Amino acid sequence: MKLRTLLFCPADAERKIARALGSSADVVILDLEDSVAARTKEAARSTAAQVLAGAAGWSNIVVRINPQGTPWYLDDLATLVPQKPAAIVLPKCSAPEDLQRLDHHLEVLEHANGLPPGMIGILPLVTESATALQSLNYGYATSRLRALLFGAEDLAVDFGIAPRSEDGALAAPLAAARAILLVAAAQAQVPAIDTPWPNPHPSPAFDAEVAAAVRDGFAGKLCIHPNQLETVATAFTPSPERVRWAQSVYKLFMDNPGSGVMVLDGEMIDRPHMRLAERILDAAADASP
């Protein structure tokens, strides 16, 4: 699953859904949570199921369900699993136990609907409360885990602060949470996905946040509007020079499988460089049509 650009779309807005599915987004997230009012939750759920049922050619539609503990959570799963979403986005994931609970529910529903076990992945938002940050130290693990998602807006509410300063810089607690998530994703050996930028209009601050996400090791970014997709996709696509370097590193180690340290263009290259090269080549492959 390509995870450079993940575009949120309210599941009760058919026009926006059509636009999202026609966009260049790698993943379309049909949202049943924050963007859907309580009175329209059931209608949005039905629409999401219909979209999934009619989108056989779209393998990267996922659904953000309502959080565990809400009256909609189990009905969301029971309605949507038979339609085979690529993954479930789990909001308000505060501990590994939340992930394990969803894993179990998906296993039961897959079996009941004759689907292969483990078919549906999980994309948890794991930084939406201060409590959740502590749990990141304990690690998240399941074969369904596709990535860890950083959410800044709800976390800012929990701290009672604005998420960003006027120049776009994240507030200190959120910047700390962002760093912790990157470590947790590396420990789980899954990609880290950056928080959405709240303004759909282009700006230097948005460009700076996207560039920082690339620099710090995120694999992609959540988006709230199609206008954001091109900037994010371009930033997360390795440059030709970077790809050529990765190809050279990869070839060097393939030609010398017994070596641990070598020299490329006058610089020392070791096994960590090989892992970086593989990541760059994977990102370049994901960027291909």
UniProtKB/TrEMBL annotation:
One of its GO terms (molecular function) is magnesium ion binding. The keyword Lyase applies. It holds the Pfam family HpcH_HpaI. One of its GO terms (biological process) is oxaloacetate metabolic process. Its EC number is 4.1.3.34. Mg(2+) binds at residues 128, 154. Its cofactor is Mg(2+). It is an enzyme of class 4 (lyase). Substrate binds at residues 64, 128. The keyword Lyase applies. Belongs to the HpcH/HpaI aldolase family. PANTHER family: HPCH_HPAI ALDOLASE_CITRATE LYASE DOMAIN-CONTAINING PROTEIN, LYASE BETA SUBUNIT, PUTATIVE (AFU_ORTHOLOGUE AFUA_4G13030)-RELATED. This is Citrate lyase subunit beta/citryl-CoA lyase. It comes from Methylorubrum thiocyanatum.
